[in-house]
Write a structure and sequence with these properties.
Structural class: alpha/beta
CATH topology: Rossmann fold
CATH superfamily: Alpha/Beta hydrolase fold, catalytic domain
Strand content: 15-25%
Helix content: 25-40%
Distance between the termini: 27 Å
Radius of gyration: 17 Å
Largest sheet: 8 strands, mixed
Number of domains: 1
Length: about 260
């Protein structure tokens, strides 16, 4: 049976989380939703159930989303949210932990893997689906609208009415490292980049840049460009989720049973 838990991040934010257990504790996957998502949404539940066929799943509402506290910083401080989820997966006894993020979540899992590699947030693999490679991307109509919703007070008021609380503080200098910069810093962690050629948020320059950066770092990096696939959880199919689960099991097989204490 699924278990719910309130996690507290290293910077003091309370998060709503759920654990769907597996028959063993070899492999755990941390699912990180996209902007405006939460783990109770049908589209995210589809992901959780699809991956649960391959191992245990921990899913969270990132800060400012769903039943979690705080306000979203749209990719900066959310690394602490993923760190807390990974730490819970380790506490639950999973010997191998892989993060699977979608859109905003796909950017955050890349950054978390690069920035938290020396602590309880260290992961054994990363799957980034439909993620942006660069900050402040406005090359598509929907992303220009998204910037208005995030960067203006009226836009943030509308987002709050829709259930997503966006921080008005903005980012300080220096800016957070971008997802593509994070991919170039992965410390030997295997990476799968999944993107659709029908994604109307981020065109194919984004996954290709992330993939190339990870290759420059010398880590294992696989790129799947999926024909006719749209954006993130809403578009991903059961077949793709099954292939992602199989990739996770295959690429982390050597990590299972290792001493993670």
């Amino acid at each position: 049976m699924p278990e719910t838990r309130t996690l507290t991040t290293s910077d003091g934010v309370r998060l709503s989380a759920v654990h769907v257990p597996s028959a063993d504790r070899e492999l755990g996957m941390v699912v990180v939703h996209g902007f405006t998502g939460n783990w109770r949404q049908q589209r995210v539940q589809k992901v959780i159930q699809g991956l649960a066929a391959h191992g245990g799943v921990v899913a969270i509402d990132m800060r400012g989303h769903g039943r979690s506290a705080g306000a979203t910083t749209v990719g900066d401080e959310e690394v602490h949210d993923v760190e807390a989820a990974v730490a819970w997966a380790r506490e639950l006894g999973y010997r191998t932990v892989v993060t699977v993020g979608f859109s905003l979540g796909g950017a955050v899992v890349l950054r978390e893997a690069a920035l938290m590699a020396d602590g309880p947030g260290r992961v054994d693999g990363v799957v980034s689906v439909s993620a942006p490679a660069f900050w402040y991307y406005r090359g598509t109509r929907i992303m220009r609208i998204a910037h208005v919703m995030v960067e203006t007070k009226p836009g943030r008021a509308v987002m709050r009415l829709r259930g997503t609380r966006v921080s008005g503080r903005g980012w300080s200098e220096p800016l957070p490292i971008t997802p593509v910069e994070a991919a170039e810093r992965l410390p030997g962690i295997p990476l799968l980049v999944v993107h659709g050629d029908a994604d109307h948020y981020f065109p194919l320059e984004h996954p290709r840049a992330i993939h190339a950066a990870a290759q420059r770092a010398g880590t294992r990096a696989d790129l799947w460009i999926e024909p006719d696939l749209g954006h993130a959880e809403s578009a991903v199919s059961a077949e793709i989720l099954d292939r992602i689960g199989a990739w996770v099991r295959e690429c982390t097989a050597g990590a299972r049973g290792s001493d993670r204490t």
